[in-house]
């Protein structure tokens, strides 16, 4: 008889959140420790949806965050590039007030969230951290996009490289952010400034800048002054005078999905199952939605059905496959639409932004999809 109900491969945010959610359901969990990496500053910030926040609240992680580790987004402003013959870009704006919600999203410090989850795992009696694989009725694979366990199962990894690189950093501004997230979709890059209260309250941003690989190499090779000049030009000063407050990190971007997410005694979650472009900020939200769905499927299973039952795990896969596929198609479509340099397409997409901005029902539908992802 197995000592554990579930063995989780991968102890990142998704793996730890799953361990806590399953322990809350009374399951015995072994959490495999991820090998330690060289110490480096973690400059990542995540935009979390209402569903993700609700999950983190349910496992006590949200309330364990330091007060300045999560910043609410009250407004979002999205700009395209100027259409042919014009000087003004298309603009799409969302507000929490207009959508009748408290906030559109929360921008969260990745390191602080990982620390909060780690502390909760350490004191959760139903979770045991282990160094090696443990026999269990179910193995949950949360190792990320380079998962060796997924490969060992013979699952096909369908990957399309975008030829783009994401650059992330922490910034400070001489102006308060006022809870406004700013994003620019311009051929061929996507720039996002996410309001964030660390390290300087009221005037800081998390940067995610997706650019072609060659341009990314140029930007990463610039000194701080050169990089900030390029960023200031790209943002047009809309967020004030920006300054760098961290190291810069970069990683290649792709669209990927596993051909299968489950089988007898195993299941994939998070980046081990799917990867999308970060332009919509939905990567971690999709992973936490996987956690939410799997925990509920296991919790509501028939009393006689084991947690590793293949038919049971297919319920989870069916529930998550469609919304994840749809989000991948949406982000991929937006990227290709806004990356196209042709003037007619530029005019069409900017007109489209302006049109959607005037259609309240459409904006409400888009907001609900993002909040519930």
Automatic annotation (TrEMBL):
Gene3D superfamilies: D-Amino Acid Oxidase, subunit A, domain 2, FAD/NAD(P)-binding domain. One of its GO terms (molecular function) is monooxygenase activity. Its cofactor is FAD. The keyword Oxidoreductase applies. Residues 4-327 form the FAD-binding domain. Pathway: Cofactor biosynthesis; ubiquinone biosynthesis. It holds the Pfam family FAD_binding_3. SUPFAM superfamilies: FAD/NAD(P)-binding domain. Keywords: FAD, Flavoprotein, Monooxygenase, Oxidoreductase. The keyword Flavoprotein applies. Belongs to the UbiH/COQ6 family. PANTHER family: UBIQUINONE BIOSYNTHESIS MONOOXYGENASE COQ6, MITOCHONDRIAL. This is FAD-dependent monooxygenase. It comes from Caldimonas mangrovi. The lineage of its organism: Bacteria, Pseudomonadati, Pseudomonadota, Betaproteobacteria, Burkholderiales.
């Amino acid at each position: 008889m197995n000592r554990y109900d579930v063995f989780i491969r991968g102890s990142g945010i998704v793996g730890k959140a799953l361990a806590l959610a399953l322990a809350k359901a009374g399951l015995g969990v072994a959490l495999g420790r991820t090998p330690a990496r060289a110490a480096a500053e973690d400059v990542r910030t995540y935009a979390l949806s209402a569903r993700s926040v609700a999950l983190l609240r349910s496992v006590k992680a949200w309330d364990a965050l330091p007060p300045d580790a999560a910043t609410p987004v009250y407004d979002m402003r999205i700009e395209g590039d100027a259409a042919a013959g014009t000087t003004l870009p298309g603009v799409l704006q969302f507000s929490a007030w207009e959508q009748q919600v408290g906030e559109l999203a929360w921008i969260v410090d990745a390191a602080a969230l990982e620390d909060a989850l780690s502390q909760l795992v350490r004191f959760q009696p139903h979770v045991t951290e282990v160094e090696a694989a443990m026999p269990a009725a179910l193995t949950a694979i949360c190792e990320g996009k380079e998962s060796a366990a997924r490969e060992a199962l013979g699952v096909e990894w369908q990957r399309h490289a975008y030829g783009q690189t994401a650059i992330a950093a922490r910034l400070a501004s001489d102006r308060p952010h006022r809870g406004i997230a700013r994003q620019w979709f311009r051929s061929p890059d996507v720039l996002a400034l996410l309001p964030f209260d660390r390290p300087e309250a009221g005037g800081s941003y998390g940067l995610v800048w997706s650019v072609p690989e060659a341009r990314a190499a140029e930007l990463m090779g610039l000194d701080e002054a050169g990089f900030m000049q390029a960023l200031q030009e790209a943002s047009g000063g809309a967020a004030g005078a920006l300054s760098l407050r961290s190291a810069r990190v970069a990683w290649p971007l792709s669209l990927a999905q596993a051909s299968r997410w489950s089988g007898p005694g195993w299941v994939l979650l998070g980046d081990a199952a799917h990867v999308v472009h970060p332009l919509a900020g939905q990567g971690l939200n999709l992973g936490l939605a996987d956690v939410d769905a799997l925990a509920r499927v296991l919790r509501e299973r028939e009393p006689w059905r084991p947690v590793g039952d293949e038919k049971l795990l297919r319920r989870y896969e069916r529930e998550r496959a469609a919304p994840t596929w749809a989000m991948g198609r949406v982000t991929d479509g937006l990227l290709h639409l806004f990356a196209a340099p042709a003037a007619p397409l530029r005019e069409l997409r900017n007109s489209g932004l302006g049109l959607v901005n005037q259609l309240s029902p459409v904006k409400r539908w888009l907001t609900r999809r993002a909040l519930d992802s």
